[in-house]
Amino acid sequence: MTTEQKLQEVVLSALASTKDGRLKWSPTAETNTFLAVIDNRSLVISRTVPPVVSVTRSVRGFIFVLRVMNNKGFEVASIREEASSEQNPLWQLFEAARNNALNPPKELDELLHALKSR
């Protein structure tokens, strides 16, 4: 199996583990970047907006990067994709990691409760 194939498998396995609650993500100091630790190794997923290189190119998606870090904190592999569809597995993994780390429904519930009690 090639490194690219292994990375694709890592993406799908991390997505499944995140969705079923076995993999926990945490926010990092960097905006739109989340970290999961697995047996002294870690996954770091991030989302950025691609730069506009000309006026004819419109920004239609995001750049997603998943980095695999070893037990010493060094990057050993990464996958980067520009995606314009929520069907992209890296997009799905980013959203699952963000939801896992930030818990938007809980945050919104607490905000609504605070707004209604004023």
Descriptive report:
The protein has helices at residues 3-19, 89-102, 104-116; strands at 26-27, 33-38, 41-48, 62-69, 75-83. The chain has 118 residues and is an alpha+beta fold. It has one domain. Strands 1-2-3-4-5 form a five-stranded antiparallel beta sheet, with helices on one face. The model has no long low-confidence stretch (mean pLDDT 92).
Number of domains: 1
Spans where pLDDT lies below 50 across 5 or more residues = none
Strands of the biggest beta sheet: in what spatial order?
A: 1-2-3-4-5
Q: State the helicity in percent bands.
A: 25-40%
Search tags:
five-stranded antiparallel beta sheet; 3 helices; 5 strands; globular
Can you lay out the helices and strands and say which pair or pack?
Layout: H1 3-19, E1 26-27, E2 33-38, E3 41-48, E4 62-69, E5 75-83, H2 89-102, H3 104-116
Antiparallel strand pairs: 1-2, 2-3, 3-4, 4-5
